[in-house]
């Protein structure tokens, strides 16, 4: 076995195996553990699918499994299922991080907007918006173009917010709409007020101290080279890659 290749341990695979599809028809699937390990290896190394090591089997099988399960939402559901198993966290953090889109990411159907690519100061970028707990573990993701304001995307992402006591965010999320949306769930928004606010909202710097956990989560995800730079043409595939990286890094 090549030491440079990634392999899921028996314990890790045992955690995800119950959540994999079982309604397959026709020819039985190729060994799930080997194929999923190969997919993770490609995401970590940043290489092309055709350059995957032969120890994972046919490269086309790796790519087809990744894309087909991405279209069915299996990778996203796997990440959410493992995250939900831990119960709702008391404190939730929200933030976003931009990644550059490689030229190979161009040309998706519907144009750049529908494929979550936008032009910002950093060029053609995609923003990954996330919810995490204070232990850096991701709870939910959303993709937008790099030019989309965080408060606009945040309102959509907060629709996935589970029960919690506090939501911690930076000044970019300091809007009346965001605050009302968070309070409607029964949580307290702990967001530093913008300087142009006449009335300074309740804010706890002590609780806010742990907000760097979400920054550390993004740094760890970007250790996967196909997350640090977007090569996927379709947003569905890139979001699936993000969920796989999050699952392997934090939930296994």
From TrEMBL:
Molecular function in Gene Ontology: DNA binding; transposase activity
InterPro entries: IS402-like_dom (IPR025161), Transposase_11 (IPR002559)
Sections of the chain in a coiled coil: none
Domain Insertion element IS402-like per the UniProt entry, residue ranges: 8-78
NCBIfam families for the chain: transpos_IS5_3
Taxonomic superkingdom: Bacteria
Location of the region described as Disordered in the Swiss-Prot/TrEMBL record: 103-122
Protein name: IS5/IS1182 family transposase
Gene Ontology biological-process annotations: DNA transposition
Occurrences of domain Transposase IS4-like (ranges): 88-245
């Amino acid at each position: 076995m090549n030491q440079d290749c990634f392999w899921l341990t028996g314990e890790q695979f045992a955690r995800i195996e119950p959540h994999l599809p079982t309604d397959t028809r026709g020819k039985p699937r190729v060994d799930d553990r080997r194929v999923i390990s190969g997919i993770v290896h490609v995401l970590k190394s940043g290489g092309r699918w055709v350059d995957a090591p032969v120890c994972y089997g046919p490269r086309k099988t790796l790519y087809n499994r990744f894309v087909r399960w991405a279209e069915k939402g299996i990778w996203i559901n796997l990440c959410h299922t493992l995250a939900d198993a831990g119960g709702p966290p008391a404190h939730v953090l929200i933030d976003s991080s931009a990644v550059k889109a490689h030229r190979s990411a161009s040309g998706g159907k519907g144009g750049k907007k529908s494929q979550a690519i936008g032009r910002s100061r950093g060029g053609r970028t995609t923003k990954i918006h996330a919810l995490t707990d204070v232990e850096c573990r991701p709870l939910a993701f959303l993709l937008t173009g790099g030019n989309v304001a965080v408060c606009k995307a945040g309102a959509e992402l907060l629709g996935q917010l589970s029960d919690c006591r506090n939501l911690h965010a930076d000044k970019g999320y300091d809007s009346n709409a965001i605050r009302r949306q968070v309070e409607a769930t029964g949580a307290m928004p702990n967001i530093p007020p913008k300087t142009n606010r006449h009335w300074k909202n309740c804010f706890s710097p002590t609780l806010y101290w742990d907000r760097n956990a979400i920054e550390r989560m993004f740094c760890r995800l970007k250790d996967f080279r196909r997350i640090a730079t977007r090569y996927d043409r379709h947003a569905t595939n890139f979001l699936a890659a993000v969920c796989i990286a999050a699952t392997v890094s934090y939930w296994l």
